[in-house]
Amino acid sequence: MLRVENLDVFYGDAQALDDVSLEVAEGTIVAIVGANGAGKTSLIRTIAGMQAPARGRIRFRDRDIAGLPSHRVCNLGIGQVAEGRQVFPSLTVAENLDMGAMLPRARAARGENRARVFALFPRLEERLAQAAGTLSGGEQQMLAIGRCLMGAPELVMFDEPSLGLAPAVVQDVLKTIRDLNRDGLTCVLVEQNVAVSLRLADRAYVLENGRITLEGSGSALLTDDRVRQAYLGM
């Protein structure tokens, strides 16, 4: 469904990604794990069209999307739940959801997608008139996911969805991602909790200093001694 080939990304003279290649099969969860500063968010931003690559290809359903502007990438069916949630704080919950439905691909199914979001997150329906900035961190993450789903994506990239959330809320968010995947949504998961990510993932990649150093099934990397020592403290 998604193939990244030999991707190089620079910020000025600093190289953030170096010859990165990976694949995401339709209907799977693929985890990208690594330390802070490894290049995970740069990878997500480049796929999403927010950062132009210096070299390489990004193919979504056999179409090269490298360098396309982000609104066109979204309208092709790639959604993003950004790190830090990034809801519009002064807008209401309803207005935030409406922003997600502005893509041409999503307009016809706006009512259906809204019902899907409320089925997943009943609390959002209870807070439709509330300003998003007054929601709890967990509720804002629900809203960020709901806003993304309003765009009718076929693949969603989740960038650190558990960041700053209470442990009980983290479990709810990760369960939501698993349930969405079981319903057919393809997911790319960048998550600080490496153990949880690998347990969820069908396939995983380890990113270190902008390069892919390990790849394999989530279960295989979970038991890999290099991963256990570097990220799991074992």
3D architecture notes:
The chain has 234 residues and is an alpha/beta fold. The protein has a single domain (2-231), classed as P-loop containing nucleotide triphosphate hydrolases (Rossmann fold), CATH 3.40.50. Helix content is 37%, strand content 26%. It is built from ten helices and ten strands. The strands form two sheets. A six-stranded mixed beta sheet has the order 6-7-8-3-9-10, with helices on both faces. A hairpin with a 2-residue loop joins strand 9 and strand 10 (211-217). The protein starts with a strand and ends with a helix.
- Extended strand count: 10
**C-alpha-based Rg, rounded:** 17 Å
Strand content: 25-35%
Distance between the termini: 34 Å
The low-confidence parts are: none
What is the CATH C level class, in words? Answer: Alpha Beta
Strand order of the largest sheet: 6-7-8-3-9-10
Which second-level CATH architecture applies?
A: 3-Layer(aba) Sandwich
What is the number of independent domains?
Answer: 1
In percent, how helical is the residue content? 25-40%
Secondary structure blueprint with pairings:
Blueprint: E1 2-11, E2 14-24, E3 29-33, H1 40-47, E4 55-60, E5 63-64, H2 70-76, E6 78-81, H3 93-100, H4 110-120, H5 122-126, H6 137-149, E7 155-159, H7 167-182, E8 186-190, H8 194-200, E9 203-208, E10 211-217, H9 218-222, H10 225-231
Parallel strand pairs: 3-8, 3-9, 6-7, 7-8
Antiparallel strand pairs: 1-2, 1-4, 4-5, 9-10
